[in-house]
Amino acid sequence: MKTVFVQPDRCVGCKQCEVACAVEHSQSKNLYQAVFESPKPKPRIFVGPGIYLNSSFPNKCRHCNPAPCMAVCPTSAIKRTEDNEIVLIDGDKCINCAMCAMVCPFDVIRYYNSIEAIRKRVVALKCDHCVARQQDGLEPACVEVCKVSALLFGDINELAQKASSKLARIVSEIDTAVSKEPLHLPDHLEAWRSWGKSASKLAKK
Amino acid sequence: MKTIIIGAGPAGVKAAETLREEDKKHEIIMLSSEPYPPYSPPAMVQYFLTGEALHYWRGQDFPELNNIDYRQGCHVVSVSPDMNEIELESGEKLTYDYLVIAAGSRLYTPVEGSDKKGIHNFKSLKAGDELLAKVRSGEVSSALIVGAGFIGVEVALMLKKMELDVTMLVRSRVMRSMLDPETSTFVQCILEDREVKILRGDDADAVAFPGDNAARAVQMKSGKELTADLLVAATGLKPNIEFLSGSGIETDWGVFVDQYLCTNMPNIYAAGDITETFDRLTGERYSHANYPNAITQGNLAGLNILGYGLVYDGSENMNSMKHLDVPVIAAGLMEGEEIRLHRNGSLRKLWVKDNKLVGCRLAGDITGAGIFINLIKRGVDISPIRDNLSEPNFCYTHIHDTALMDNVIPS
Amino acid sequence: MSAHEKNLSIALDAQKMLHRASVDNIETVWDRLTRQEPQCGYCSLGLSCRNCSMGPCRIDPFGDGPQKGVCGADADIIVARNLARTIAAGAAAHSDHGRDILEALYHVGSGDTESYAVNSEDKLKALASEYGIDTNNKQVQELAKELAWEMMEDFGTRKEELTFVKRLPGERQKLWAKLGIIPRGIDRENVEVLHRTHMGVDNDYVNILLHALRTSLSDGWGGSMIATEVSDILFGIPKPLTSKVNLGVLKPDMVNIALHGHNPMLSDVIVQAARDPELQKQAESLGAKGINLVGLCCTGNELQMRLGIPMAGNHLMQELAIMTGALDAMVVDYQCIMPSVVETAKCFHTTVISTFDKAKFTGATHISFDPQRGVEIGKEIVKLGVDNYANRVPGRVLIPDSPVEMMAGFSVEAIVSALGGSPEPLVDAIKAGSIRGAAGVVGCNNPKIKHDYGHTTLTRRLIENDILVVVTGCSAVSNGKAGLMMPAAAEQAGEGLKAVCKALGIPPVLHMGSCVDNTRILVLAAALANFLGTDIDKLPLAGAAPEWYSEKAVSIGAYVVASGIYTVLGVQPAIFGSPNVVNLLAKGLDDVVGAKFAVEPDPEKAAVLIRRHIEQKRQGLGLPAVEADKIPMPE
Q1: What is the pLDDT at residue C257?
Q2: Closest approach of C585 to chain A, Cα-based (Å)
Q3: Which has more confidence, A116 or C176?
Q4: CATH architecture of the domain with range B2-106+238-305
């Protein structure tokens, strides 16, 4: 199974993944046209702040198994693909009830007018792991634009075999696809992060 | 093995589905009092407004596909646990190895004369069909709704979209049991913006439905009468437990169940709106009639019939009104220290007790609902993010580098 | 008030207004910051480049992704280019402000304005001599015109070095000459930054940074210094006076007009206009007891130090001042005026009036300022404020605190005069060790740092340890609000400093003016060095900008360091993407210009960094000193 791994310590909060995701889910698939589309394409990955300045985290659907969103969907609009275990939302079936948002502990479902629903009505939107791109042999749009390797795309087993490589650390956290182990950061980055930490702690003094 | 499931709502369907997934040979009989394939109540509004049959959430052929003996329009009149037998209105008797009571709830109206003709409700697809038949007849142009709970608001907004002149009678305030006064006002403003008339106070405190055979009006505590072409009662819910009287199955408000969702009879389980379980947060006996609880309970009852022996975490008080374009989510309690944020037309109210998040009411921007509800469920110490909770952009990512992350579990 | 509101600011008036913002659902700068978070790491590390359309480019700071822009620029070049442009923007802002004032002096000299006049003939003559103008037998007006003309040459390209460079110790002038960073023309250095940072021009990060320092010096010893000196000629040399500070200076029963921005030209004529009997009468006819002018930000500092006009608040108070519901007009000139004030004003009756054609605000009323018709325009502006008093909603007026007293007006001339006409008593106190040294605590507010916490905490720790503190800009306002700028605050100082303050009757924290007036600190430092016959970097001095936000502050930091004064920044500049640039600025520069930068957000720690530095400098001068390492760094 291929999935997107997150290495949070590497995220610099540039939000390029959000832009790429929105463009990928637009009608034109072109940034300069996408911004003029109606409805405006929306990202399904959300780079939010940490509790300290200079920290951030790219938050997206983990395609949980079992998926709580899928269990509570009152119209069976949320389904799992059989082949590559992606949890998908069928916009035509979604009634915009937000049951899924209530039970998603990662808070990655949003509601917007969508080209994927009849009458472009408001429906639940979330990461689809770029199903269409994957069929063309491409990696998800967010991974492609991430220049700091905060987002990686790969096969769990392949990654496990690369135990000696720098990717090894994330393998032990496969269950949630998020690395919890702090990475060793270069000194100048450590300085950048620690400024954020000290500045944020001041507020509570 | 043979299981009878009384009820074809979400809890019954989930129980059947779980049994079938795990055991292909299990004999399953499912009884529905309504004349339809199993349907999903939250999708009824969409169906009535657009005609899209999304409420048949597992497909109209769900019984055939899952090899279920499905009987619709079928009323159970009694249960005899000592003989593992139930009796139907037709006189037919059915035996079982296991029984799942998932008969749901119905309208509860403490207003005199509520059994009279001419009073509509929206608690079932059948009731909805009758209500809609009246609306579509073209004979009605106004509606009077008694009660401003979840279903009252749902019906009001639906009828408004059908261009009726809608008035709501609100004894105290809109969605009083679910929302704090401020969020309640937020919802009231949305209703008023959509031109639903709201009457409050003694002049809106319904005490009776006067009328000889059919109800002709609603009478208030003040003595004043109001009427409309369509009278709708949306005053509350009551579990359908009458057929259990004399069976020896322990009931009070609803059907009593233990931590395995088993009744006092070892092979009889209950799930959904009819059960009286315990609240996950307070531990108190309660019946939180909502869709996610019904699904969880149906699933658990099914698994426990198969011998998994799984313990129920307790029912959750939560609901969303978003399908009516009312972006409001309510979960948990409304007591303890209040954290409030009012920004850009959105309201976020959180309640913290002993450093634990115990409740949330979100209106407008509902971002964060999933994480708040998860934190409420886990009952963990939220000190590391305490000060961030009132920030406008608080979201999941604030906890990614705190110990709280270990408590983010999809379940 | 919630814990959150108390986490944002230490000031009671700010906390109360933030509470109102929360209850009334009014957006503030802090909300917008949280909405912006996380802010882009490439940008905050200085690793993104938008200079050409082969880009935009960014460098992966972790080293795996792209390490060069499309043109081939690496992290060092990109960070250095970006920093140089930041400094140029800051220097340009100060210097353009200086030019505007200089033009007013030229109008005075040409006799075509009645709104301004030479206020300080002494200063005019002193400067004229400094500029090599023969002052004998010349009328004031003639002299004003000649001086203005000569100063305008500092902006151009005909000079090989700016006139004020001569104020520096000879050693420093020689050092700059050796490094090739003597500023030549104010505009020239700025233009050259833009040229050098164009693709394919200067591709040596050290060379880029040296020019960036030169550009900052064209601000500190050029544009800003001209702004300060010419303001003194036109509006008077500040002298110590007592005034008031915080939102409590707004009056519930008077027409309140806030003057916000940086340039004193406009506000000076408004003060004249507000005295107009017609306008006073009109205010009274509307039920007001008169017209109350208050300052905000550096326009406020300019007015407070010369005229004693009360100060409403610093940078982060601008939206909150409107939220009192008591402000009838906010008159803005330029710099640090958030575009958001127009939106905040919409929630109340406040009229925002913009005045400079180079600084317009959509949604504000624009009254074009013309120095030749100054007072006439001033009256038009005041009238708008008075008229608007009628629209004030008394029920929404919430003045959150009562004002605090503070002293202002410590120009170099005033300090020397307080010392009895010579810097000697100060030098003696430093030599004896009763005063360990002096530090400038300056700069802005930044919502990333708890409002006023950085300024006041650092200042307190320094005076407690016998370090005389001089302040300007937003720092002056925060320390004034904290009560540290009255002679009585000497009690909060260490024994040595307390005794000196008491003997002279001065506060331990001296208000030296607005942010262009940081040049007064430069002049004082140069005067002390000259008096001792040494260079500035040998003196026990330090600078700090605990809450800085603006490009101007980067330029200030750069000219202070290049002038030889160690500087601690509370907020990170966008340079951390290049370890080489960081090493140069935080280490290597010490061997080049005798001073360097440090970054430390915690003011408790910043105070220790400064104390250690000052003790080291004392040791260098052979003065009694404490072993720097013996001063413990707090956890």
Answers
A1: 98
A2: 13
A3: C176
A4: 3-Layer(bba) Sandwich (3.50)
User: What residues form DSSP beta bridges with C352?
Assistant: C330
Q: For residue A176, is pLDDT > 60? A: no
Other Cβ atoms closer than 10 A to A48: 23
Decide if pLDDT at A177 tops 80: no
pLDDT of residue B125 exceeding 60: yes
Q: Which residue has the higher pLDDT, C505 or A177?
A: C505
Residue whose pair of structure tokens reads 């009796």 in the numeric block: B87
Classify domain B110-235 by CATH number: 3.50.50.60
Task: Return all residues near C560 (Cβ < 8 A) that are at least 6 apart.
Answer: C220, C440, C518, C521, C522, C543, C567, C595
Mean per-residue pLDDT over chain B, rounded: 93
pLDDT at C233 > cutoff 80: yes
DSSP letter string over B165-219? EEEEEESS-TTTTTS-HHHHHHHHHHHHHTT-EEEESGGG-EEE---SSB---EE
Q: Which two tokens stand for residue B42?
A: 């939250």
| A-interface mutation test, from C576, C580, C585, most A Cβ less than 10 A away | C576
Sheet containing strand C566-569, edge to edge, reads C509-513, C467-472, C437-441, C541-545, C566-569, C597-599
- At residue A182 the predicted structure's pLDDT band, cuts being 50, 70 and 90, is low
**Distance between CA atoms of residues C298 and C315, nearest Å:** 9
Q: Is B387 close to A96, i.e. CB distance below 8 A?
A: no
Task: Catalogue all structural domains in chain C, each as residue range(s) with its CATH number.
Answer: 3-58 (no CATH), 75-235 (1.20.1270.30), 247-396 (3.40.50.2030), 410-630 (3.40.50.2030)
Nearest CA in chain C to A16: C40
Ordered DSSP codes for B128-166: HHHHHHHHHTT---EEEEE--SHHHHHHHHHHHHTT-EE
Q: Which residues contact A194 (CB under 8 A, 6 or more apart)?
A: none
Is there a common fold for B110-235 and B327-407?
Answer: no
Can you give the residue ranges of every domain in chain B?
Answer: 2-106+238-305, 110-235, 327-407
Q: Does C601 touch chain A (CB under 8 A)?
A: yes
Contacts of C630 (CB under 8 A, 6+ apart): none
* Residue C28 per-residue DSSP state: -
State whether residue C47 is helix, strand or coil: coil
Residue A114 has a pLDDT of: 94
Q: Which two tokens stand for residue C445?
A: 């507010």
Distance from CA of A100 to the nearest CA of B (A): 8
Q: Do B410 and A49 touch (CB under 8 A)?
A: no
ipTM of the complex: 0.92
- Structural domains of chain A ordered from first start: 1-60+129-205 (3.30.70), 63-126 (3.30.70.20)
The single residue listed with the structure tokens 């978070």 is C37
Which class is domain B327-407?
alpha beta
Q: What is the pLDDT of residues C523-539, one digit of tens each?
A: 999 999 999 999 999 99
Say whether B342 and C22 touch across the interface (CB within 8 A): yes
pLDDT in tens, C6-53: 899 999 999 999 999 999 999 999 999 988 888 898 999 999 999 999
- Residues B344, C2: C-beta atoms closer than 8 Å: no
Q: Is the pLDDT of residue C306 over 60?
A: yes
d(CA C179, CA C176): 5
d(CA B142, CA B137): 13
Query: Residues C238, C242, C247, CA angle at the centre, nearest 5°?
Result: 110
pLDDT at residue A184 in the model:
77
- Rounded to an integer, what distance in angstroms lies between the CA atom of residue C597 and that of residue C430? 24
| Nearest by Cα to C399 from C346, C323, C340 | C323
CB within 8 A of C128, min separation 6: which ones?
Answer: C135, C143, C146, C147
Say whether pLDDT at C576 is over 70. Answer: yes
